[in-house]
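**Fold tokens**
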Amino acid sequence: MDFSKDQLVRKTLENYSGASNLMHNEKVRELMAAGKKIYHFGFGQSPFPIMNKAAERLSKHASKAAYLPVAGIQDLRYAICDFHKRYDDISRSPDDVIVGPGSKELIFLLMNIFEGDIIVISPSWTSYKPQVQLSQHAPRVIVANMADKWKITPASFKQFLESENFSTVKLLILNNPDNPTGTLYTKEELISLRDVCRQHKVIVLADEIYARLTYDGDFTSMAQVYPEGTVLCSGMSKWASMGGWRVGYHIFPPELTSLKNAVKNAASNTYTSVAAPIQYAITEVLQDHAICESYMFHTNRIMAAVAEYCHRELIDVGVKAVVPKGGFYIFPNFEVLRETLTAQGIHTGEQMVEKLFGETAVSVMAGGPGFLRPETELTVRLCFVHFDGSDALLESERIGRGTPFPEDFVRTHCTNVHDGIQKMSRWVINLLSEKTTQKP
């Protein structure tokens, strides 16, 4: 039977592609496996080993093979509530929690059952817009600017909501700290955004997967300032370095019980439940407050040092960038190279990063459409996690909490990031030198 002339894919998905960050990572990993030396700044995976005894706990529960409750075992949901009470001062019941195989799946399910417009911010994580499209919504995009540190402002958000025709209830996807920019909304900024949300009936999906990776520890959850209208989204992938364990969760307020029940019903018809051994193991991990707190302190301290180094070195050669406040990312703009690159026939961010890779083996993702930015914008998402996290973590623990890092910590213990940034900086300097010599 010949299906070649039949319409098999929804027309709205004819030009749909896989997650660009995952495809980029697979391509680079293949080159690295073949022996090519690459400075891989294109994928945001934690560089650190999992916490002490986490693997032992998983092994301990490996024999548990029964199907578990769709929303997750009660002990795990209790542990999640206790965790967020401790760190975010948010009081929720285990009945408000749904545990899923990664926060990504839960975001998608929420989009699928939501009746209303879904708003995403430019720039944003690569999967938000594709998930909106896959759930048969038309994404509504609000643009943030570098001048505002890549954050939407209450004024811009209010104008956006009032200048277009929206459904009665809206859903805003707010990633904080942000991927790809590393920016962080302050408590005051969240309160101002909350006021706009209340006025315009906007529900917030607060993707706070990087919350425990806020460098100075001064993080405020949107669920704290806007409790009745916020779905808190988090998980174990980033701060706990358990991306492959695939555990995420949503915490709903009582006011959004109808959404929670619908997501739970959708979950029962899709993934059923998170793997039993992993649920029991993570319950015990979250209950070990001392190990969690120590792990977060040391990994945060390391990431803060790496972020500061990347920002400083790029700014020193004329690249513009907002200082990252949390997470694994910086979103620099190489506009300083525009004139030189244009003279070489390079007009897009994608062309620029291809040139960078070919000449330095430094791999980054172009800002561009993948992050909801203009194709010609010279921004890139740079993930500063390509280093030996085991070595860095051991050294931080050896140095101890009361002693600051030595000046050469990044060079000595985060060597790939140090060397890759140096190569990128020299590349910029060389191109600027070409610009100077080309002038009459």
Observations:
- The chain has a mean pLDDT of 93.
- The chain has 16 helices and twelve strands.
